[in-house]
Specification:
Blueprint: E1 3-9, E2 13-19, E3 25-32, H1 36-39, H2 42-56, E4 64-71, E5 75-77, E6 82-84, H3 97-105, E7 109-113, H4 114-125, E8 134-139, E9 143-149, E10 152-153, H5 185-188, H6 194-204, H7 210-216, H8 223-231, H9 235-259, E11 263-267, H10 275-288, H11 291-294, E12 298-301, H12 308-325
Parallel strand pairs: 1-4, 4-7, 8-11, 11-12
Antiparallel strand pairs: 1-2, 2-3, 5-6, 8-9, 9-10
Amino acid sequence: MQKLIGIDLGGTTTKFAFLDMDGNILSQWRIPTDVSDEGSHIVPNISKSIVDRMAKEDFTVEDFAGIGMGTPPGSVDNDAGEVNEAFNLNWRTIQPVREQIQQELGLPFVIENDANSAALGEFWKGAGSEADNVVFVTLGTGVGGGVIADGHLIHGVNGGGGEIGHITVKPNGFLCTCGKRGCLERYASATGGVVNVALDMANQFHGNSQLKDQIDNGQSISSKTVFFLADHGDILANQVVNEVCKYLGLALSHVGNTLNPENIIIGGGVSNAGNTLLQLTTKYFQDNAFPAVRDSTKIKLAQLGNDAGVIGAASLALQFKNSMNV
C-alpha cells in the first residue's frame, strides 16, 4: 500500500513524516530551516532530505501517493502551489514551491498554511476526529486558526478564513502586527500576548508576587512562567491568567456563535497549561455564548502536539489523491 509524506515547514525547523494511508506516523525526522540567501535553500533542502530518507528506508517514489506541506504565515495560493511574503522564511517574493518540489520528486504536492494543516491533523486523528465541524485555535508565537465545516476546510474569498487571532477583543487595545488594535493575538499568544498582559498588569499591581518581583528585576518571563506561578498560588499570575482566558473565551464565543462547531480545539504552546487554561476559558466562553451554542459546542485541548502539522499536511495529499480517483 502507498504512503504519504507530511511536511511542517517552520522558521527554524522543518519537520517531516512518512505516514500510512490511515494517518499513522511510520517515521519522522527534522532538519534546520536555512533562511539565508532570501530563503533560496529551503525548497532544495526539503527535496534532498526526502530523497535521502527514501534511500535510507529503502523506498522509491512509487511507494508514495503524494506530499502535503504546511507553511508559516504568508500568502498561500493553494491553487497555484505558491507562497508569497512569508517573512520569517525570508521569502519576500512569490515562491513556486509546488513546481519546484514536483520537478524534483515527481509526486503530487499540496500546500496550506500551518494553522490550517494543524487543524486538519486534529480533525483527522486528534481531538476533532469524531466531528464534522471543528475550529482549531493555536496559541503559539501568534494566534492562528483553522475552520472545518462539514468536513471541508474554509478559506474564504481571499484566504482570510480562520484568522481568529485578529478578532478584536479589546477596542483600542494593544497594537497588533497586522496594524489593528486589540486583536486576540496580542492577549493570548505565548510571547506577544500572555507576556504583554503580564507586563501591563504588573505596572498596576502593588501586592506580594513572585511574578511581579521577576518583572521588576528585569528577568525575562514567558507564558510558561506565568501559568506555572498561577498554579502555585501567585496572586498576580492568577490575575494575568484570568485576563488572558477572559479574552480567549470571549473570542471563542464569537466563533461559536457564528459557526456552532461541535468542537473548538485549543493547541499551540500555551495549551500546555492544560486544565488551568481550559477551565477558565470554558467559563468565559459559556458566559458569552448563545445558549444553544453554549450547550452544544465543546472547548477541548489538542491531542497531537507537535505532530498535528505533519499529520494534517499528509491528509492534504490524501484528499488530493481521493479527488483524482473520483
